[in-house]
Amino acid sequence: MAEPHLIGEGMTGGYGRGADILHGCTLSVEKGKIAVIVGPNGAGKSTAMKAVFGMLNLRQGAVRIGGEDITHLSPQDRVAKGMAFVPQTSNIFPSMTVEENLEMGAFLRRDDIRPTMEQVYDLFPILRDKRRQAAGELSGGQRQQVAVGRALMTQPSVLMLDEPTAGVSPIVMDELFDRIIEVARAGITILMVEQNARQALEIADTGYVLVQGANAYTGTGEELLADPEVRRTFLGG
Ligand SMILES: Nc1ncnc2c1ncn2[C@@H]1O[C@H](COP(=O)(O)OP(=O)(O)OP(=O)(O)O)[C@@H](O)[C@H]1O
Ligand SMILES: [Mg+2]
User: Fold this and answer.
1) Could you tell me which of 198, 197, 138, 140 has the C-alpha nearest to residue 169?
2) Residue 109 has what pLDDT?
3) 103-112, 124-133, 176-185: which has the minimum mean pLDDT?
4) Any idea which ligand is nearest the CA of 22?
């Protein structure tokens, strides 16, 4: 069997010369599937995402996309390989318009970006209405749509999202999850970190519980939701 489309395997490392934050952490996602990382604050979820995206020097482990080893590539070179990353904070340019944000997302492309922009507007119709407005004037949920849309402008094969629903209402969260499912159905591989663990595991093909930079529990979303230990420790019973 071919290996999963995205793999971060046995990742060990930390920031600069500091202590290791990740301890042999492994994450993988099949093509067009959704993997969700959950775990307590400070568990290293964002650090694991940064490691997969090449923002951390790993002491051990490897990252592969489509079977190709990209462990030593810069984030920009990973974008060229099909990775897109929406970080937890500062994920839009607030003073630029919605449309300028989308254009920034496509800065590496030399072909016609119009069709992709239309796809983003079809996915998030509110952004079409607000395309001439400064992104910083949008609501939290709309800004997250800008961030996701901007990431999609590179036509990635892998979309990585760090807490895409942070600070939004439950209704907006459900809506955003529906859009993420739609993106996955289009064949894009999704790796995301979520604070709303229960709801996120409901849409997860694979779930990872990280604790202190290591894999604590792994299973399908369904399995983790049914696991008494996971429920008691991480899902509030
Ligand atoms: N830029 C950085 N430089 C040094 N240490 C960092 C840096 N960013 C995070 N850390 C440390 O790495 C550890 C893991 O942090 P990380 O942000 O990955 O956790 P997290 O699981 O994403 O938490 P949260 O749920 O709060 O977003 C923490 O101890 C944190 O202090
Ligand atoms: Mg985080």
Assistant:
1) 140
2) 86
3) 103-112
4) 1
